[in-house]
UniProtKB/TrEMBL annotation:
It comes from the Bacteria. InterPro entries: AB_hydrolase_1, AB_hydrolase_fold. This is Pimeloyl-ACP methyl ester carboxylesterase. It comes from Rhizobium binae. SUPFAM superfamilies: alpha/beta-Hydrolases (SSF53474).
């Protein structure tokens, strides 16, 4: 059972047609999965520019990590308040040079990778959760693409929720995951003894 969020949903979606034997079901939370229109993202692009990129990354990670982190978390959580445990995360560990490079690499490969994805087997159960007030992605853009590529996907749209349904409405996400687990357990799974 795979659970993924945002751009992290690309990995299980790309894995599914290649290794169907590994995946029994998926819960995708606010998935960013359809190729997206070009966005300037000037600061990120400048941070990856040869020669000056390392200097820009150094400035970002030494001078402004708290500002960058808290701005990103507010945008992701909005319109909902940022949970205290997310606000308390150490910004300098998250806004680091390797994390900026990784994010840039993911974004540069994303469109080509997802454009190459074909139809996903309708036998693979997929449940999708979106917030209807998401400020990071357009949930309609991505849900339309999922419907085209998987005609059996089940959708749940949460009213008044942004890009973090698993933080804002954790109980709903847990319930959807439990339903997936129950519906896709094999008789062998039921015979396993609980782990101590």
């Amino acid at each position: 059972m795979l659970v993924a969020h945002s751009i992290g949903c690309a990995a299980p979606l790309l894995l599914a047609p290649r290794r169907p034997d590994l995946i029994r079901a998926m819960l995708l939370i606010a998935p960013c999965c359809r190729p997206v229109p070009f966005k300037p993202l000037l600061l990120l692009r400048m941070a990856m520019t040869p020669l000056i990129g390392s200097a820009i990354r150094r400035q970002m990670t030494t001078r402004w990590p708290e500002m960058i982190f808290h701005s990103a978390v507010r945008t992701s959580a909005g319109p909902n308040p940022v949970p205290e445990y997310l606000a308390a995360l150490p910004a300098r560990h998250i806004v680091s040079s390797p994390s900026i490079e990784t994010m840039a690499a993911e974004l540069s490969a994303f469109n080509a990778d997802m454009a190459a994805l074909g139809h996903i087997s309708s036998e693979l159960p997929i449940t999708v959760v979106f917030g209807d007030r998401d400020r990071v992605i357009d949930h309609r853009w991505h849900s339309e693409w999922i419907r085209r590529n998987h005609d059996q996907a089940l959708f749940k749209t949460l009213r008044g929720v942004g890009h973090l349904p698993h933080h804002v409405c954790a109980e709903v996400c847990v319930e959807l995951l439990e339903r997936l687990v129950e519906a896709n357990m094999s008789p062998m799974d039921n015979r396993r003894s609980p782990v101590a």
